[in-house]
Every structure is written in C-alpha cells, then in structure tokens.
Design goal:
Keywords (chain A): Cell inner membrane, Cell membrane, Cytochrome c-type biogenesis, Membrane, Transmembrane, Transmembrane helix, Transport
Number of helices of chain C: 8
Helix content of chain C: 25-40%
CATH superfamily of one domain in chain C: P-loop containing nucleotide triphosphate hydrolases
Largest interface: A-B, 30 and 30 residues
Subcellular location (chain A): Cell inner membrane
Order of helices and strands of chain A: HHHHHHHHH
Distance between the termini of chain C: 51 Å
Structural class of chain A: mainly alpha
Oligomer: heterotrimer
CATH architecture of one domain in chain C: 3-Layer(aba) Sandwich
Largest sheet of chain C: 5 strands, parallel
Strand order of the largest sheet of chain C: 6-7-8-3-9
Chains: A mainly alpha (221), B mainly alpha (262), C alpha/beta (233)
Strand content of chain C: 15-25%
Largest sheet of chain A: none
GO molecular function, one term (chain A): heme transmembrane transporter activity
Protein name (chain A): Heme exporter protein B
Family (chain A): Belongs to the CcmB/CycW/HelB family.
Order of helices and strands of chain C: EEEHEEHEHHHEHEEHH
Strand content of chain A: under 5%
CATH topology of one domain in chain C: Rossmann fold
Number of helices of chain A: 9
Number of strands of chain C: 9
C-alpha cells in the first residue's frame, strides 16, 4: 500500500503545483454548460427539462478531456517505465494515479455541478441526487477512462482517439446518472439507478486496474 | 492450438478450403436471394418492404457475430500471444463494421415506409449504433501506431474491454428506452416470422456467415503476405546497389527458392 | 553469490529482428559492457534483462530462476537507468528522489537521499526544481536514484550521456563501489567509461539476416514465408 500512497501523494502534489489542470477542467465544464442555453434558447422550462442531461454530458466531456494526461507526461519523460519496474504491483500504482485524477477533476466537477444546475433552472429537489449520482459516477468515469488513456500511449493523434474509444463505454454511466436525477425531479425514488451506478463503480474498481496495467505494460514493450 | 495457428499451417489448411467456401457462399446467397425476392409471400401489412428483412436480420446477426469473434481473438492473443489471433481480430473489424452499418442502413430504409421515420431511438437500433462506434474505435486504435504489432495488441485489449461492456451497454440502453418509450403505434418486434419466411432467412444467415469466413481468409492471407514482403524488405533483399551484388544474389537465391516451392 | 544469465535470446522489435541466439552470464562483482553499432539492440537487450520487454525466444534467469516467474522480486533487486531522466520539472530534486525511495520501501529515506546526493556532488541542488537543472544535473539526479535502497543489479543504458569528464569519473567510482559490494553492472556506452576489466558483449555478433533467421525458425514467425520442410522439398 506504500506505493499506492506514494504515487497518490506525488500526483496530487504535481497537480497542485501545476494548478491549472483542475481549474481548466471546471472552466471547460462551466463554459460547455453555458453554451446550451444559447443553443436551445433561454426559456426556463426547457432548460429545467434538459438540465440533468446537459450537466452529465458536460461533466463526461470535461472528465474525458483531462484523461490524456493521466499517463501521457509520465510516458514521455520515462517515469512510467520506472513505475512499471518498481517492486510494487502496477495495478496498485494505476489505482493510485486514477484516484489522484479523480480527486483533481471529478471532485471539483461535483462541487461545480449544483451551481450549473441552479443556472439551468433545475428544480432543487434534484440537487442532492445529482451530487450523489456524480459521486458514484465520476470515479467510474476516471477508472474506465484510464484504460483508454493507457491504450493510446505512443499513438498518433492520441487526444482525439481517446474520446472515440472511451465515450461509447461511458454511455451506461450517463444513462443512469441522468436517469437518477430525472427520477428525483419527478418525485420518484432514485434508489434503483443509484444502486446500479454503485454496481458499475464496483465492477470498474475490480476490473479496470488490471486492464489498465496490462495496457501500460504493453506500451512499455 | 499453436501448431494449428502457425501461419504456414494456416495457409496450407485454407488453400483447399477457400474455393469450396467461396462456392458455398455464392450458392447460399443466390438461393437465399431467390427465395427472399421471388419465392416468399409478401406480408399482408407491409407488402414488399418486408423483403428488406432478409438483408437486415442477417446483417445484424453478423454485426454481433463478428464482435464476439473479435473479442475471442483478442482474448487468445492476450493469453497465448499468438500473432495469428491478432491478425484475425484485425481482419474481422472492418467486416463487422460494414455489416453493422448495413444493418443500420437497411433498418432505416425499412423504418421509413413502416414507421414513417428514418430513425427511432429504439433500444435495438441504439445498441447497434453503439456497436458501430465500438468497431470504429477499434479500427482507429489499431491503425494509430507506427508499429502494427503494438496496434494489434492494444486493439485486442480494447476488444475484450468492449466485449465485457457490451452487455452492460445493452442493459442500460434497454432501461433507458423503457423509461423514455415514446407513445407510438410502432410494433418494435417486427413481424412475427412466418415459416415460409424462415427458409430464406436461414439461407441468408448461413450465406452471410460463410461470406465472412471467405473474406476473413482472404484478408488474413493478404496480411501474412504483406508481412512477408516487409520481412524481405527488412532483410535487405531489395538492395539494388551494384556493390552489394554478392549479398543480393545470395538473397535472390533464397527468395527464388521460396517462390519455386510454393 | 548471485548469478544472472540469459540463454538463446531472440528479440524482435516491430517486425525487425534485432538480435538472435544471444547468451550471456554474469556473477556477483561482474561488469558487462554492451557494444554494437546503432540499432544493434543494446537498449532492447537491457529492457529484456529488466523484464520490460519479453524476448521472442529464450529466457533470462537470476540464480537459475526465470525472471518472468516473479517480476516483483526481480524489480526489487534491479535498478534501471534508461535514456530519459524521469525528472519532474515542478518537483525539487529531493522530492523527485523521494518517490523512488518510497516505491522501493526504503527505510530512512532522507538519509539515503543525502548520501546519494553527496556521492554525485549535487547536494547543493536538493531544493532546486527539476526545471532549473541543466541536462548534466538532470542526469546526475537520475544517477542518484540508482543509489537508493538495496539492489544487486544495475542496468545502465548510456549512463554518461550529457555528463562531463569529471562526472564520468564519479560514475566509474559508483560502479566500482557497487561491484565491490557484490553487485552486477550491465551497461552500454558510446564513450569509454573507466571500468575494471568488464566482460565485453558485442551485439554485432548476434545480428542475423532476416531471411536466414526466418528459414531457421519457421515455428516462431508470424512472418515466415515457408517452413523448412517446404524449403527442402
């Protein structure tokens, strides 16, 4: 576990010192969400109706945009090679890096989401559910996205490619995340959706580190 | 397993099979088309448009079949690390993608007269669309590397991840669709299949499947030959400078013998 | 007495045959120098020895046990120095080194870092961020990393790139000390690094023309035009 915390601490302090990354993700999220009223018109009813979907899609895109840097810089400067060669299981290190990615991108998004929900005129009944759903959904996005980020190491046009690979895999999280909020807005219990999201998160937690570590090892060959 | 998977064994085994398979494909599809277009009854509701089904359903089947095949090849390549598994997965992807696209296009053509719309966000259509995205992602990934082997390996890992994800996607799309079921009179199940329609359908499905194997064999042979050419180029056989004449002629001998022995 | 050996190693990069039929052996205190023209596979061989790259055939053994059987144990005993320095620009030299110490589970990390920085004469840079280092200083930081913690095997890919003559002397001393403690050093270099009687492994000897190799090993290919049987017909 030492290795897990060591890499987590290092990635967090890197993110803190470079700083801009987390801010950029949140800024992207806010700007994207702001575009929708321009597209569909400022009418409050329509915005309230589409708010949960808009917030989820924007969060998905924001989380995806930051994926590339999970491994890319470490790959370029040779750090990833040494991580693969350290006497700690690579799966654990991958998990540490994904957790750092979530703490620096997913968590700020969860905090920014209610603000955007407010601006989109979403009913306040949905706020708690929205945040709980994002709390369950965004870690799954980071975990699944890490596979894509590891697969494209060394590829041409990696950034565009990762979105093509990862977005179809994000669909379940989107469906249940937006579904949970919608159920809450309709006054129905969202427990079923949230449970399924928790299940997706657990499956991702159990399976994706192996796939990601395997992809990283391949990239090192 | 390994003995069978040797490329030279593959070439030897497929050589005699190929013409028979190609013949069977032609006969099956010709017979299927005859029954589908002429010798089967028209639907009392849909009229002649029902005949689109004979392309649409087999194409959908092939879309799924190819993806499963790709995932199995991917698993074999990751477990046994045999290059032939990678080549098969790689050769399958464009075929599967084409069938999936064909399924979507015929579905859309069928939907227009039947449902009055080119596209509905029906659970099955949406799942097929996502499957097409998965194919495109695979193809893009496999071709994004300078080293083809690295591309194939990354692709195999992706195909496996995708295969695990497909049931989850299918489940969530079904859920989403029941939640948002539009109030429509559309019968999404399609027509109940009459026995007289089953024969052409079965023929077409068999024909498409054997067509897939023909194309797969051709594509794998092509890839093996391309590798052969690259290997010979790397060996310096095509070095045409005069001062390398000795090395060149020796290599030419080796190459010549290869040609002669095929 | 540790024993590090490899037998009948064949390495393909992409579809290019780098070397074939290569064997080597080293015992505690040995140094092996890899020599060969560009593209002869010096880096590839070091990566095979580290376990980053699996050879197409043959195996690498430590005390008679294949390194592929227990990767973690092999990683724990080796230090690998590749071409990139892996120095993060925003972290100080000390913070950069700390991560590697923590990953190896080194006790008393700060003390070890001090000792390593002293050996490479960069102690005054401990608090400086990576981005302000010259390329020679970055290389020395990377070299300090391989002094962290216990190890029995150093795999050094051109350790002296970007270093001046004096620093090269320090590297020679590091290697001599490590060998005196019973370590095995395997290194590739373009300039002569002063190392006491190293075993020389000339990779050019193991280069095999693609065609011949394909004809000899049809069972390994993926690229083979014809099997030997067919060729004999």
């Amino acid at each position: 576990m030492n290795g897990f915390f060591a890499i987590l601490r290092r990635d967090l302090s890197l993110a803190l010192r470079q700083g801009a990354d987390s801010v950029m993700v949140v800024a992207f999220f806010i700007v994207t969400t702001t575009l929708f009223p321009f597209g569909v018109g400022p009418e409050a009813n329509i915005l309230a109706r589409i708010a949960s979907g808009v917030i989820w899609v924007s969060a998905l895109l924001a989380a995806m945009l930051s994926l590339e840097r999970v491994f890319q810089t470490d790959y370029e400067d040779g750090t990833l090679e040494l991580l693969t060669l350290s006497p700690v299981s690579l799966e654990l290190l991958v998990l540490g890096k994904v957790l750092a990615h979530w703490l620096t991108t997913g968590l700020p998004l969860i905090i920014a989401a209610p603000l955007m929900a407010l601006m989109l005129n979403m009913d306040q009944d949905g706020f708690i559910t929205l945040m709980v759903a994002m709390l369950l959904g965004t870690p799954a996005l980071s975990l699944i996205g890490a596979i894509g980020a590891a697969l494209i190491l060394g590829a041409r046009r990696g950034g565009v490619l990762v979105s093509l690979l990862v977005l179809p895999l994000y669909i379940p999280v989107l469906i249940f995340g937006a579904g949970a909020v919608e159920a809450a807005l309709l006054g129905i219990s969202a427990t079923a959706q949230l449970q399924i999201m928790a299940a997706i998160l657990l499956i991702a937690l159990a399976a994706t580190p192996f796939a990601t570590a395997n992809a990283v090892r391949q990239a090192m060959e | 397993m390994h003995r069978f998977a040797k490329p030279s064994v593959f070439l030897k085994l497929t050589d005699p099979i190929l013409p028979w398979l190609a013949g069977a494909t032609a006969i099956l599809i010709a017979a299927g088309l005859y029954f589908a277009l002429f010798a089967s009854p028209i639907d009392y509701q849909q009229g002649d448009t029902v005949r689109i089904m004979y392309l649409h359903v087999p194409a959908a089947w092939m879309g799924l079949f190819c993806y499963v095949g790709m995932a199995i090849c991917g698993a074999m390549s990751l477990i046994w690390k045999h290059p032939l598994a990678d080549i098969c997965a790689r050769a399958t992807a464009p075929i599967g993608a084409t069938f999936t696209a064909l399924c979507l296009i015929t579905g859309s053509l069928w939907g227009e007269p039947m449902w009055g719309t080119w596209w509905v966000w029906d659970a099955r259509l949406t799942s097929m669309l996502i499957l097409l995205f998965l194919y495109l992602g695979y193809i893009a990934l496999v071709n994004a590397f300078d080293d083809p082997e690295r591309g194939s390996k990354a692709g195999s890992a992706l195909a496996l991840v995708g295969a695990i994800n497909v049931p989850i996607v299918k489940f969530s799309v079904d859920w989403w669709n029941t939640l948002h079921q539009p109030a429509s009179i559309v019968r999404m199940d399609g027509p109940a299949v009459d026995p007289s329609m089953q024969l052409p359908l079965a023929l077409m499905i068999l024909g498409f499947t054997s067509y897939y194997f023909v194309v797969l064999i051709l594509r794998v042979r092509l890839e093996l030959n391309e590798r052969r050419i690259r290997a010979l180029q790397l060996s310096g056989m095509f070095d045409e400078r005069p001062d390398h004449k000795d090395a060149g002629s020796r290599n030419y001998e080796a190459g010549h013998n290869m040609e002669a022995n095929q | 007495m540790a024993d590090f050996s490899g037998s009948d190693l064949t390495c393909l990069r992409g579809e290019r045959l780098v070397f074939g039929g290569l064997s080597f052996a080293a015992k505690s205190g040995d140094a092996v120098m890899l020599r060969g023209r560009n593209g002869a596979g010096k880096s590839s061989l070091l990566r095979v020895m580290a376990g980053l790259l699996s050879p197409r055939s043959g195996q690498v053994c430590w005390d008679g046990e294949s390194i592929a059987d227990d990767r973690i144990a092999h990683h724990a005993r080796l230090h690998y120095l590749g071409h990139p320095d892996a120095v993060k620009p925003v972290l100080s030299v000390r913070d950069n080194l700390r991560l590697w110490g923590q990953l190896r589970g080194v006790q008393n990390i700060e003390h070890e870092i001090d000792a390593a920085l002293d050996v490479l004469d960069i102690h005054h840079l401990a608090r400086v961020s990576g981005r302000y280092l010259s390329s020679g200083q970055k290389r020395r930081t990377a070299l300090a990393r391989i002094l962290m913690g216990q190890s029995d095997l150093w795999l050094l890919d051109e350790p002296t790139v970007g270093l001046d003559r004096e620093s090269c002397g320090e590297v020679s001393r590091m290697i001599a000390d490590f060998r005196a403690r019973g370590g095995i050093v395997i290194y590739s270099t373009h300039i002569d690094l002063e190392v006491d009687n190293p075993t020389v492994l000339d990779l050019d000897e193991f280069a095999i023309p693609m065609v011949e190799w394909l004809l000899e090993h049809p069972e390994l290919d993926g690229t083979s035009p014809v099997s030997t049987q067919e060729a004999a017909q």
